[in-house]
Every structure is written in C-alpha cells, then in structure tokens.
Amino acid sequence: SLTRQQPMVNIIRTTVQALAAALGGCQSMHTNSYDEAICLPTEESVTLAVRTQLVLKEESRIGNVIDPLGGSYYIEWLTDEIEDRVWKYLDKIEQVGGIVKALESGWIYREMAEAFHKRRRAIETGEERVIGVNCYVSEEKQKVEVFRTNPNAAKIEQERIKKLKAERDNRKIEELLDRLRRVCEREENVMPVVMELMGKGATLYEVCDTYRDVWGEWKQPIVF
User: Fold this and answer.
1) Could you write out the DSSP letters of every residue in the chain?
2) Residue after which a domain boundary falls, among 60, 78, 103
3) What is the pLDDT of residue 224?
4) Which domain holds residue 201?
5) Which of 4, 42, 131, 174 sits 20 to 30 Å CA-CA off 119?
C-alpha cells in the first residue's frame, strides 16, 4: 500500500494499518518503513517504524484490552464476510486439484495477476482513491534520504567467506553436506543436519546448492 509519491504520507498509512492490526488482536506485527516504496529503508525510517508500534503499545494502551472491538455489529459482519470468502476461495483451490496443482499449473499466479490488474484499474479510473497518486496530487517532490549500500560490501563479504572456509573443518563440512543430500533424497527432516552444518561454518549457498542438486531449481510458470 506504500507509494513513491508523497512518501511521508506512508507514515500515516502504516500507523492506521498498525492500529487496525492491534485492534484486531494480532499476535505479531511488522510496520513498513515509509521509504520502502523507493529504496531499502534507512536507519531513520526503520526507527520511526518501530516507534509507531511503541506509541500504540505504550501511549494508546490498546494491548491492555482484550478484543476492544468486540460487540461491534460492523466488525462482526466483516468477520463473517471474510470467513465466508476464505472458505469459498479454499473450495476453488480444491477444485483445481489442491495448492500444489494450483502452483504447478500457474493458476495461483493468474489469480494474483488478475487481482493486481483489477486494483491497478481501480486506481487509474479513480474508483479507488490513493492520496498523492490519483487525488490530492502535488507537483512538489518530497525529498527523502535514500539508503545507499557500501560499494565495497560484496568484496568485504567475499573476503569474510574466504577466511571462514580457510579456518573451518572442510572435511567435516563435506561429510555433513553428503548426509544432507541423502536426507533430501529420503525426504526426511533436513533441519537437524542443516543446524549442524551452520554450527560447523557451512554457508547458506552450500546448503541451498545441495537442495538444487537433489530437487532441481523451481521456475515460476509463465502466465498470461
């Protein structure tokens, strides 16, 4: 829901979304940084996103009340409506053969693409109003600090991995990777051996490369 246009308005959007989640009794929450529609979040924007949650928790005290919207006829109606639509959609997935078939056939991606284009059309026609995009548009550009990565980050990481591989027990790593391969082939729980690999200094690439050797590389179906 974040927009590149008037990015500071995203702070308000995120606050309203966080409030709705808290009122709904969410078990965990993530608040987006206002600049995520433009770049990776800066330290400032990340801090502000976290502070949004803290203001709701400490100053509004929403969390002190269990089900603060309980009894609202409209919320109860919305809950029933969402539940009804969810069950109907699960039935549609079953009709196409289940979630695996839906993924393999590209059905899920067609549904996602259709939903995306439907919302895009609604915004373009003004049916759905988005501040700064199709209403209350400002010609003045808001300047925001853009996060920039360290240009030497890749080289630093390469040197770190090179040092790691020079200091670890590579024979043990190979033994564990071979065990992981056998576990994958038997379709057993991979987590115990993966945790042991990580503890011995294996890289995520080496673990994932083993997965690719056994199962191949998944490619998203092309949908129209």
Assistant:
1) ---SSSTTHHHHHHHHHHHHHHHTT-SS-----TTTTTSSPPHHHHHHHHHHHHIIIIII-GGGSSSTTTT-HHHHHHHHHHHHHHHHHHHHHHHTTSHHHHHHHTHHHHHHHHHHHHHHHHHHHTSS--BTTTBS--SSPPP-PPP---TTHHHHHHHHHHHHHHHS-HHHHHHHHHHHHHHHHTT---HHHHHHHHHHT--HHHHHHHHHHHH----PPP--
2) 60
3) 66
4) 152-215
5) 42
